[in-house]
Write a structure and sequence with these properties.
CATH class of the largest domain: Alpha Beta
Order of helices and strands: EEHEHEHEEHEHEHEHEHEHEEHHEEEE
Largest sheet: 7 strands, mixed
Radius of gyration: 21 Å
Structural class: alpha/beta
CATH architecture of the largest domain: 3-Layer(aba) Sandwich
CATH superfamily of the largest domain: Response regulator
Number of domains: 2
CATH topology of the largest domain: Rossmann fold
Length: 407
């Protein structure tokens, strides 16, 4: 990975960024200038935490970059709601190609069809949420990059952590691409670490009652529940387990951090206590200063992230850790655009693999030739909930080195 170079293209949002739900390919961009157009395709309505994290991170990066830029070199963002629908995501990708976009930033919805649409135009696609294995393949999808933790890194880290605690678990995953891929990765990693899976269930992503599946897991003799699913399913699992009196520990992937989990358990906030999830660390090994600087800028623009709940007499606030990935992506893409001679297509695609930036939390972000993952496998940590807030666990070597993040 080459060290970061001075950003010659510095540019902020020249026009108000609009959210277009199911935007038609004939729609016009939010700015008619001649700077690089970055299309942001996210599930704003269906998964608001995911969608807002990405759109706001991208907006903040663009606004900062544009502050000192010449008007004709300002980044243009077009934010489009993909509704978590692969067909809408595909339409958004066709719109991006038709309008000469320099790049696309997305949660990963419909990544395979989006990659096929992007390939002939050599349009770089930056995935900043979905960790599924099928998303990233340099040979099949040469235009797709990921700046977010991969499921295989997360599941291995979680399995290694569990190996010191339990011998038998039950796994519940939802039927989304995220749930299926993460669940499969997890089962393989649990087996690798000698942990028996006593019961494994795949449930619909829109499940409203998972009592039967939880009771089946309990009867299997599992010592713990491991859930790889969206926030709503995770909340349902915890509710069903605790309401039935089952106190087995619950472990999950990064969607546990979605405020929706806490909001759906608001009537019984103690039920979430002790739940552990794996994610990519919020602060870098250099310390919390870089993240706190990013957080100050983010909250000055969007507020302090109150989730509508209180604990210990104080509002609970969500730290802007996931917006960092979209923020870093836009900054990296802006540098690639400048480095590639302000060209789109192949020149831009090649430049993405030649540049790097210092990320919002102080970690280096970039790709080399043949590399499509910008988040290191060594950066995964584990956090535990207590009274609606989470903090690094105290029984894991990497996690204990990380400072708590104010919430």
């Amino acid at each position: 990975m080459r060290p970061g170079r001075a950003l010659t293209l510095i540019v902020a949002l020249a026009a108000v960024v609009g959210a277009l739900v199911g935007c038609e390919p004939s729609a016009v961009p939010s700015d008619s200038g001649s700077g690089p157009l970055i299309v942001v395709s996210v599930p704003l309505g269906v998964q608001p935490w995911v969608g807002q994290s990405i759109s706001r991170g991208a907006e903040l990066a663009a606004s900062q970059l544009n502050l000192t830029a010449a008007p004709k070199k300002r980044i243009r963002l077009q934010i489009m709601d993909n509704g978590a629908s692969p067909s809408i995501a595909a339409a958004n990708a066709r719109w991006a190609v038709a309008h000469g976009a320099a790049a696309m930033v997305t949660d990963g919805t419909g990544s395979q069809v989006v990659a096929q649409i992007a390939a002939p135009a050599a349009l770089p696609i930056m995935v900043v949420f979905d960790g599924s294995a099928e998303v990233v393949d340099p040979d099949r999808y040469p235009t797709v990059f990921r700046l977010a933790p991969a499921n295989r890194f997360l599941s291995r880290r979680l399995a290694d952590y569990l190996a010191e605690k339990v011998k038998t678990v039950a796994v519940i995953q939802d039927d989304s691409a995220y749930g299926r891929d993460g669940g499969q990765q997890l089962v393989a990693d649990l087996d690798h670490d000698g942990i028996a899976v006593a019961r494994s269930s795949v449930v619909p992503v829109d499940s409203s009652d998972l009592s039967a599946q939880v009771q089946s897991a309990r009867r299997s003799g599992a010592q713990a529940l491991v859930v790889w699913a969206g926030a709503a399913v995770l909340a349902q699992v915890i509710r069903a387990a605790r309401a039935s009196g089952w106190s087995a520990p619950v472990y999950s992937g990064p969607t546990a951090e979605d405020p929706l989990v806490r909001q759906q358990l608001a009537a019984h906030p103690r039920w979430l206590d002790g739940t552990v999830f794996v994610s990519s660390r919020i602060t870098s090994e250099q310390g919390p200063a870089a993240f706190e600087q990013f957080r100050a800028a983010y909250e000055a623009r969007y507020g302090q992230g109150d989730i509508g709940l209180s604990a210990q007499g104080r509002p609970v606030r969500q730290p802007p850790d996931w917006p960092m990935y979209a923020y870093d992506s836009v900054r990296l893409l802006a540098l690639a655009f400048a480095t590639g001679g302000q060209s789109t297509g192949a020149a831009m695609l090649n430049a993405v693999q030649e540049v790097s930036v210092v990320g919002a939390n102080g970690d280096q972000r970039g790709f080399g030739a043949g590399n499509r993952e910008a988040v290191s496998s060594g950066d995964m940590y584990l956090a535990r909930f207590q009274e609606l807030r989470f903090a690094p666990v105290t029984d894991d070597r990497l996690s204990t080195t990380l400072p708590p993040v104010a919430q």
